[in-house]
Amino acid sequence: MIVKKIVSIVIMLISLSVSSQENLYTSYTIPANLKEKANAVIRSNDIHISLRSSSEMYVTKKKVITVLNKEGDDHVGAYAYYDDNVKIKSLEVLVFDNFGKEIKKIKKNDFKDVSAVDGGTLYSDSRVKYLEYTPIEYPYTIEFTSEIVNNNTAFIQPFIPINDYFLSAEKSTYTIDFPEDITIRTKEKNFEALGLEKEALSGKIKYEVKNIEAIKPEAYSPTSSSLYPKVLVASKQFTLEGVHTQVENWSEFGKWMYHDLIKDTYDLPASTISMIQSLVKDAPNDVEKAKKIYEYVQGKTRYISVQVGIGGWKPFNASEVDKLGYGDCKALTNYTMSLLKAAGVKSNYTVVYAGKSQRSLEKDFAAMQGNHVILNIPQEDKEDIWLECTNQKFPFGFIGDFTDDRDVLVITPEGGKIQHTKKYRAEESVQLIKGNYTISNDGAIDAHVNVNSKGIQYDDKYWLETETERDLDKHYKKRWKYINTVNINNMHITNNKETVEFIEDVSFQATNYSKKIGNRMLLTLNALNRNTEIPDRYRNRKLPLKIKRGFTDIDEVEIKLPQDYNVESKPDNKTIENKFGSYKTEVIVKDENTLIYKRAFVIKDGEFPKEDYESFRNFYKEVNKQDNAKVALIKK
């Protein structure tokens, strides 16, 4: 059997060599450099977009992808969205084994057909057909072909040869053709080292790129969307759900959105306008009025996605939200804006890419972008106020890491403009610890800690307010996981939305905290806020170092030593300062049985060359070392 298998493989390899050096249906012909770090390899990906008019677009795709292992299954991407304006003309998958033999054909009606939106959606006409295939063995190859007709031309699929980590591409092409009365704009990004070929003719633009190696994710690197090569494509003339327009800059784009999608939705009933005016009549200024209205919206509404036709982009009328008490991000933002308008407070509908990655809109390429909507309240003499209208728990003016520090589109009656959302600086994102603990003669610890968190550190913790006592207990045991046998005695939480501070008051005990050796005891000073993170090591770092958000930790802890012991030696005070931040510790002998431990740890946000990563990692290693520094006690 083994001999037969070897012979068949040899015959197959000879056959491959003779018939074609470019056989795309077996992994044996993949160049070695494209297999490296890859879970799947795109052998060929051809996208052809035919823009017949500003209201009709045909998209034809043919992709051949070889999946090398189980982790590569997610890279197949064999799916197609459709709704009342998007029709699937054809959809087919062919599956090949590793010898390039076709083993399965999957037609359009055999694809899974489900709603294209999550469970938070009340109703939507958007659906998706996707491939559900369980491979028999690896590697295997998929050929996916599709043809889609779309009456919406506001979104033109960009050219993105690879869109994930651990994915390489042998060859990708992208072609768009269009009539003479259509103007197409493009923007190329991250192709500097890839040899992008571009052909631009009258009524046609074609791109081709070959041999893109897989990218392996690295800790503290820029967002993936900023790393992948891509060509953004947009038409000056486009149609969205039957609404036609022409735009080529953000000012025109915002003007279109305001006048065609938003303006006519401010239809609050007279009774609600009267109620709102009464609610804010005693407020001393516009900010206080806005705060009262924001808190009213939080108490009255709940978030639920509602998408039907143009409802996917156009907010529901304010009167509907007022009556029903729910809406998606567009509807709730528009409702809040309508209430503010009734109170005479100016605010602006704002389009943003939401998520912790801090993805910005392309400020020099106006097109349909973003995945979320928030509200902007302009301020003349200070930072603008930003409101997240889908969150019932956020304090007024707090947006957290979901929409912070990124370029967004603010829409006004005069047009759109790119602005930058609130950036939480390291000195604002502060955690203050005041605590004390007592060490018994047998090495047990009895601790009490008060933690006050602000800025992004508030965002990390505000959700604890609604956790059950059991879940809180698990949370605090995990926070102090470096202490064995922790028993949480008391937990008290205060969420001060007025000052945007989250305050935790916790007491705990643990046996055998310190280590006894003969007549000595070794005590790790930092019991309440020990750094346990050391960034991953990379022998050959490929990506720049990106610290997305900075923070400041300031601790002061009083330590009561065991009665039967004296201090034999204590760590020296330590100060570290570098481009990434700073670290400082101080140990003060208050009296014979009392020490004061002070610690300040600051990390600054910023982007640095990849060569700086090792220094950054060494900084964290030194912090970890100092956080584990011990005082030696000797028995009296």
How would you describe the overall organization of this protein?
This protein is of the alpha+beta class and 636 residues long. The protein has three domains: 2-240, Immunoglobulin-like; 249-420, C8orf32 fold (Roll), CATH 3.10.620.30; 430-635, Jelly Rolls, CATH 2.60.120. The protein has ten helices and 38 strands. It has an eight-stranded mixed beta sheet, with no helix packed on it. β27 (487-496) and β28 (501-510) form a beta hairpin. α6 (318-324) packs across α7 (329-342). The chain is globular. Mean pLDDT is 92; it is low at 1-21, 119-123 and 307-311.
List the helices and strands and how they pair.
Layout lengths: L1 H18 L12 H4 L4 E14 L2 E12 L11 E4 L3 E11 L5 E6 L4 E4 L5 E4 L2 E4 L9 E11 L16 E11 L6 E6 L7 E5 L2 E9 L17 E6 L1 E4 L2 E4 L3 H13 L7 H10 L6 H15 L1 E2 L1 E3 L10 H7 L1 E2 L1 H14 L5 E5 L19 E6 L7 E3 L19 E6 L2 E6 L9 E10 L5 E9 L2 H4 L9 H11 L7 E10 L4 E10 L4 E3 L2 E5 L20 E3 L3 E10 L4 E5 L4 E5 L2 E11 L2 E10 L2 E3 L4 H15 L2 E6 L1
Parallel strand pairs: 1-10, 7-18, 17-19, 25-32
Antiparallel strand pairs: 1-2, 2-9, 3-8, 4-5, 4-9, 6-8, 10-13, 11-14, 12-13, 15-16, 20-21, 20-23, 21-22, 23-24, 25-26, 26-28, 27-28, 29-30, 30-38, 31-37, 32-36, 33-38, 34-35, 35-36
How many separate structural domains? 3
Q: What is the CA-atom radius of gyration, in angstroms?
A: 30 Å
Quickly count the helices.
10
β content, as a range?
35-45%
